[in-house]
Design brief:
The structure is a single chain. With 341 residues, the protein is α/β, with parallel strands linked by helices. Helix content is 33%, strand content 15%. The strands form two sheets. Strands 4-5-6-3-7-2-9-10-11 form a nine-stranded mixed beta sheet, sandwiched between helices. Strands 1-8 form a two-stranded parallel ribbon. A hairpin with a 5-residue loop joins strand 4 and strand 5. The longest helix has 22 residues. The protein starts with 15 loop residues before the first helix and ends in a 10-residue tail after the last helix.
Length: 341
């Protein structure tokens, strides 16, 4: 059928609501159990290509929506087998597990996750850095000099690629599809190399832009890294020393709180304030009750111009940032105390 006769194609005069409805229906064609968060993500990315499709350029957005829905359904089917909600979670294979969430946009969670990883490997600890974000939105896209040759297929369309960041192992998602929806993110066991490093001392997980979603759905997608288990994780919340950042971080904790109260998720363990040495006057007054409980033990990471300009690159993390995080890691017994180095 031609683009003109295909009702799935976008056409001039076709209402946006009708288009989105058709794309959502296409996403569910082969995925009857597709979650709302996945449908929303699929409609967002495929509706953006509708104009090109209407002009006869590019793939039919309905076909793309259907393919994305099928992959999300396949991934969730596997999740129900290897990481079921009804089974107690053991994090032992990951060593010490540190999920890193961004409390607000631009907080620098990827930078902090990378600096933690670099501090670990500088102390000769075997570290795995997991990039659980959509590759198109990842803050770790340039964290390794080159992509490694090792792939772990999760299904026909999604794989985990392993690369080296100096002596640390970096795991990132790879797909030929235009996006990774929340339901397409592999469950934690599928991120481990086969065979896994022995011993693996620490796994650092950058939840990136997915932190807001993960806090609301810790039994789904990247949120699986927040599921309560043993040994307990130490989730880190990264914020900026600004009133808007603290307000947004409070909302994130509010989304996570019901899951924590039900015993499903692990609460945030540590607040890290990026790009500051102390609180500016008047900022902490914006802290809500959940953030306020974390203020006394907050760790400050000083401003780094290289991060502001380039983000995370394959260069080592700035020494001042790594040094700011070392006492925290030493207090957790993950590295040697700076006093004894």
């Amino acid at each position: 059928m031609t683009a003109t006769g295909d009702p799935s194609r976008a056409r001039p005069g076709c209402g946006l609501f009708a288009l989105n409805h058709r794309l959502g229906a296409a996403a569910r064609d082969h995925a009857p159990h597709l979650g709302v968060v996945d449908v929303e993500a699929i409609v967002d990315v495929t509706s953006a290509t509708a104009a090109a499709a209407a002009g006869g350029h590019g793939p039919d957005p309905a076909d793309t929506a259907s393919a994305l829905g099928a992959v999300a359904e396949t991934t969730q089917g596997r999740a129900a087998t290897v990481f079921p909600e009804t089974r107690p979670v053991s994090w032992a294979a990951f060593g010490a597990l540190i999920p890193v969430l961004a409390g607000s946009a631009g907080a620098g969670a990827s930078c902090v996750a990378t600096a933690i990883t670099d501090a670990l490997q500088a102390d000769r600890r075997c570290a795995l850095l997991v990039d659980a974000d959509d590759p198109a939105r990842s803050g770790l896209a340039c964290a390794s000099t080159w992509d490694g040759p090792w792939l772990r297929p999760v299904n026909e369309q999604v794989s985990v690629r392993y690369s080296w960041r100096d002596d640390a192992l970096l795991a990132r998602l790879e797909t030929p599809l235009p996006t990774i929806t929340p339901g397409m993110v592999p469950v934690p066991p599928d991120w481990l190399p086969d065979p896994p490093p022995t011993p693996l001392h620490t796994t650092v997980v950058d939840l990136g832009h997915g932190g807001w979603r993960a806090a609301a759905t810790p039994v789904y997608g990247a949120g699986g890294w927040l599921r309560r288990g043993l040994p307990a994780q130490r989730p880190i919340l990264v914020v900026r020393a600004t009133r808007p950042s603290l307000r947004q971080a409070e909302e994130l904790l509010a989304r996570l709180e019901p899951w924590v109260q039900r015993g499903v998720a692990t609460p945030v363990f540590q607040l890290v304030v990026n790009n500051a040495r102390k609180w500016p006057s008047g900022v902490i007054g914006a802290a809500g009750p959940r953030i306020e409980a974390l203020l006394d033990d907050a760790v400050f990471v000083p401003h780094e111009r290289s991060w502001e300009i380039a983000g995370v690159t394959d260069d080592p993390s700035p020494p001042k940032a790594v040094d700011a995080l070392r006492p925290l890691l030493a207090s957790w017994g993950l590295i040697t105390s700076p006093r004894h180095r």
